[in-house]
Amino acid sequence: MVYGYEFKLPGKVVCREHGAGGLGKPVARMGGTRVLLVTDPGVRNAGLLDPVLSGFGEGGPEVAAIFDGVGQDPDFDTVLHCSEAARRSGADCLIAVGGGSVIDTAKVVLIALQEGDDLTRFRYGEYFPKGPLLPLVAIPTTAGTGSESTHIAMIVDPAETLKVVFHGSGLAPRLALLDASMTLTLPPRLTAATGMDALCHAVESLHSNVAEPVTDGLAVKALELIGGNILRAFHQGDDLEARAGMLVGSNIAGMAAANAYVALIHCLAHAMGARFDVHHGVAVALVLTRGMEHNLRFEGVPAAYRKVARGLGLDVDRDDDQTAACRAIERIRELVADLELPRTLREVGIPRESLEDLAGSAMQDRSFALNPGRTSLEEVLALLEKAY
Ligand SMILES: [Fe+2]
Questions:
Q1: Ligand 1 centroid to residue 197 C-alpha, Å
Q2: Does residue 4 lie within any of the structural domains?
Q3: What is the 2 CA–ligand 1 centroid distance (Å)?
Q4: Domain boundary among 182, 201, 233
Q5: Which listed residue, 152, 192, 219, 227, has the most CB atoms within 10 A of its CB?
Q6: How far apart are the C-alpha atoms of 136 and 132, rounded to whole Å?
């Protein structure tokens, strides 16, 4: 067992059916009187703001404004536009309703409101606010990033064509509200992609070189919930129980990954997202099993993947670690196929001649060093060639 680790606890997590409609009181308790709702056009058009809005008014806090300008991969401009909307509306509380992009934007808006518009000073290094940050409530509408319960945000820096990381305990939403009814309308393709992202958070937490007992426990439970519900949620979007399993699974996988971190697989996905606009979950699914195969050579990883196999419900008691690990990889490969996700980089339009650049970008990612073993450019390139 690892003895010697740090685990950052997120804010409060409330998991409640139709909880999105009852935020007036919790916001008032946080001192919020004027709320800025941060979201994206898809969430707004799907009518998902209606239940949230219904919980305000009648003498309590009010919704002062709605900012729906968050896109798939928000950049610094998105953050600055949103913080301007917050200032203009006199908001003293933010509620992010959406997927990871929306929630991450709101987290970095907290920094911009406190520190001004020069965000580049705060990327990478841990952020310690100079004063109290506005309270942030997060309501996920996808079961993917788990960003609603993490202290980390990723934003595209156009100058670097890379996602840059902001992190600090103060960035974790004060309240994460898990209401599975908010995910019922998520289309099958996004259910699959975001779900595989969550599954990958659990896998990368388990093989991380800073994995510890808390992250291991969260990751295995997350795999159980995600593995047991993802196909039902994909085929029957209105299955509330399956949606709830996915939402809780992604939430705790996010907590695991925020503390054990992600590595090679996510580095490749970040590079594909920043350079070719490939959806994060799709990008993760494209390289997940290849990344696991690569990592099998490192000490401790087969044993970690035995935990993946167990989490996914495979009976591996009679298998040695290597066999159990290979069965886990095979199971995930089957899931990617069953979820009808793209299976090659070629299918998502990545040109073959860009593979070396992609490999180079992935290796510049700060998380690359957290992979369980040293990996050369040639090895990353070989992995990408196999995934092509
Ligand atoms: Fe991810």
A1: 5
A2: no
A3: 25
A4: 182
A5: 219
A6: 12
